[in-house]
Design brief:
alpha/beta, 344 residues, binds pyridoxal-5'-phosphate, seven-stranded mixed sheet
């Protein structure tokens, strides 16, 4: 059975055009920086985000870890949202592998960290304190509903960082979703940042890979750490070929995914027993199962699956649906119908 797979935008299969480009890609040994397709993707990524240089990495998790380890020494402190992917879903890598100390601050409902909270968390020089080195933002903020952070907000955080000699990293796994929904360029959204990671393998539909962008000096150090962490790949142009299509074409169509997510949200909103999270934004819909509904989380997932739709259970009666390239209008209708059937 062909499922309507709304578990994540990472489930996206590459398009036929991507597969053809991958088969034809000119390749070389990328550890020697000899792969023309990787080099082309890196130039394109740097240019698109308005930074000097870029690095192709196997995953977003590795990209974020490399960025944090490039900015920070062991024992340095990172100011980060408590709902951030880097804080919650990257296996504690910054501490385990980088010796970096997270300083999680509350993510507000709109995905931001309050500017006053950031100011207050910056440590004064004192033998008792870790050295605050970096602020890390996430855009879109996944676990706050896929909400975008505005250019104005990011600029304010950048200002605080500069005034205090800190660097700013953006986990922009879905930065192009933020750009599409805010109707600004990704370049403008990340202008205040020293480094940015974004994923090719989510809504942009490429099978593998993420990009790290920043200054030439930052990327040179990042390249060393990528090798150290085992992320130096050889004929990686086969993967980068799909990444070029992702960046050139897929960034331009994300508005469609956002519209379909909105249609799903609107369709579910009147179904009794589902409590929609009004913060749901971009390509994500979050909801809770009301306590009086006599279904466990697993039962809901199972019943919806019987109707041909896959969804993610996040625990504690919370669920997430994510739209992407392979979800069309008929899938939206089928999804709403599946919930209507199960909940009646
Ligand atoms: C998916 C994701 C990552 C990590 O990317 P992987 O390629 O899955 O390692 C980082 N940050 C956010 C916000 C994500 O959603």
């Amino acid at each position: 059975m062909d499922y309507v797979d709304l578990r994540s935008d990472t489930v996206t299969q590459p398009t036929p055009e991507m597969r053809a480009a991958m088969a034809e890609a000119k390749v070389g040994d990328d550890v020697y920086m000899d792969d023309p397709t990787v080099n082309q993707l890196q130039e394109l990524a740097a240019q698109t985000l308005g930074k000097e240089d870029a690095l192709f990495v196997p995953s977003g998790t590795m990209g974020n870890l490399i960025a944090l380890m490039t900015h920070c020494q062991r024992g340095d402190e990172v100011i980060i949202g408590d709902r951030a992917h880097v804080n919650l879903h990257e296996a504690g890598g910054m501490s385990a592998l980088g010796g970096i100390f997270p300083r999680p601050l509350k993510n507000q409902a709109d995905g931001t960290i309050a500017l006053d909270d950031i100011r207050a968390a910056i440590q004064s020089p004192d033998v008792h304190h870790a050295i605050t080195r970096l602020v890390c933002l996430e855009n879109t903020q996944n676990f706050c509903g896929g909400v975008p952070l505005t250019a104005e907000y990011v600029k304010s955080v950048g200002q605080i960082a500069r005034e205090n000699n800190l660097t700013l990293h953006i986990d922009g796994a879905r930065i192009f979703n933020a750009a599409a929904t805010l109707n600004v360029s990704a370049k403008k959204l990340v202008a205040p940042a020293d480094s940015v990671m974004f994923c090719l393998s989510k809504g942009l539909v490429a099978p593998v890979g993420s990009m790290l962008v920043g200054s030439k000096k930052f990327i040179a150090r990042a390249r060393h750490l990528r090798k150290m962490l085992g992320g130096g790949m050889r004929q990686a142009g086969i993967l980068a070929a799909a990444g070029i299509i992702a960046l050139e074409q897929m960034t331009k169509r994300l508005g469609e995914d956002h519209l379909r997510a909105k249609k799903i949200f609107d369709g579910l909103t009147h179904i009794r027993g589902l409590v929609l999270d009004s913060r749901s934004s971009t390509n994500m819909v979050f909801f809770n199962l009301a306590n009086d509904v006599p279904l466990t989380d697993e039962q809901l997932v199972g019943e919806i699956k019987k109707r041909g739709v896959l969804i993610s259970a996040l625990g504690a009666r919370r669920f997430r649906l994510v739209t992407h390239y392979w979800i069309d209008d008929a899938d939206v209708t089928q999804t709403v119908q599946a919930f209507a059937d199960v909940m009646k």
